[in-house]
Structures are given as C-alpha cells and as structure tokens.
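Sample pair:
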Amino acid sequence: MTRFLLRLVFVLALPLVLLGLWWLASDDSTNPFWPPLRTILTAFPDVWTPERLRADVLPSVLRLAAGYAVAAVAGVALGTVIGSYRRVRALCEPVLEFLRAIPAPVLIPVIMLFAGIDDTMKITVIASGCVWPILLNTVEGVRAVDPVMAETARSYGIKGAARLRNVVLRSASPQIFAGLRQALSIAIILMVISEMFAASNGLGFTIVQFQRSFAIPDMWTGILVLGLFGFVLSVVFQLVERRVLGWYHGLRASARRSQ
C-alpha cells in the first residue's frame, strides 16, 4: 500500500506542479485568448455535462477504437507475412517506404471521395495513419526471432498456427506492443483532425465550434478533456501491456538483478 501511494505521488507530482504554474501565470491575465485557469475550471462542469459527454466524447471513443482495431489487425497480419518471407519483404519494402511517408491528414480529401463524410471516413483516416508503426514494428519483430528458437521449434515438430502463436508472435510481441503504443498517440491526433472535417459531433468538432463561437474558456475545457482522454488511454494500455508481456518484463527484471 505504501509503495502504491509513493508511486501515485510520483505520477501526479509533475502534473500538479504544471497546473500550479499555469494557475499562477494566468491568474492576472486579461487576454481573452488566455483566460485564467480558475475561469476554465469553473466553466468545466457546466460545459462537460453527462449529456455532452455522451453526445461528443462517446462517438470519438468509438471511432478511435474502431480505427485502432482495424490498424492493429491489419498491421500485425501484414507485418507477420512480410517479416516471415525475405522475397515478400524485398518486394514490398519500396512501396511501404513510399506510402508511410505520406501524412494521413493529407489523404482526408481523397478518403472523403471514396468513403463519404460519415464515420467510415473518420475510421479510415485513423486506421490509415495508425497502421504504419504497427506494421513496421511487427516486420522488425518477426525478422528478429531467435534462429535457435525457430530451429528448436522445427525440430520438435511445432508448425503452422502453433509455431506462429507460440514462437513468432510471442517473440515479436515486445516490438509489436512498441508499435501499438506509437499508434495510440497517432490515433488520438487523427481522431481530432478527422472530426474537424464534415462532422456533427466528437471532441475535435466541439473544440472547433467553441473556437469559432469565441467561447474561449469552453475551448480550453475541451483541450483539457482531450488531454485527460489521452492519459486514461495510456494508463489502460500500460495495464494491458503489463499483463500480456508479463513474461518479458519478468525476464528483464531477472536480468537486472543478476547483473
């Protein structure tokens, strides 16, 4: 319990210090675009009511989850195939390098032509940007599978789905999760950007509407909600990662203790 409290204090210390500095720096502000933090916090409960959370935050969460899931499945599947076969990797590498250099926001007008302006467009935008770190990290993780481990599995007759699940994906899983973590931050950015185009709800839409109507304190509350949203997603991701990669973190801890 004491260790948990110390960790909680360590995690919250810097955010509280930054909020305190923000409070002091903005306390006497008369700039309409830089309102005092107390004004923003006072407006927060009036703006983000349960109805608005359901109308604007929930659609954003669903779009992000759908786009992220599509990117994760496609990235891991394609990355496993490309990383497992040298000829496929040599064939696909120039195309992958070309496509990943194109920023996803630039593709929004093109995607709107084919997917329309509904949620399909927003999910496609999120997936098109998130897939690259997952795919490329999966390729490198599969390529780095220990050849001794692969040969041992072959000697014991472990083939097909069992080899893929217990040898290839398990060995590559630390790098796959590194790609998933990178993709999560990209997903949040693309979620907001996609909701600024032809949207009627969502966090990005709401923040822009506040800005256009000069409701500046309300706009700042939306930015705080977006930051809290990202923080919660990061915490959830860390919990999932620790559970799935418990064996990996255990090996690293044992290696550190033995040094």
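The CA atoms of residues 5 and 40 lie 29 Å apart.
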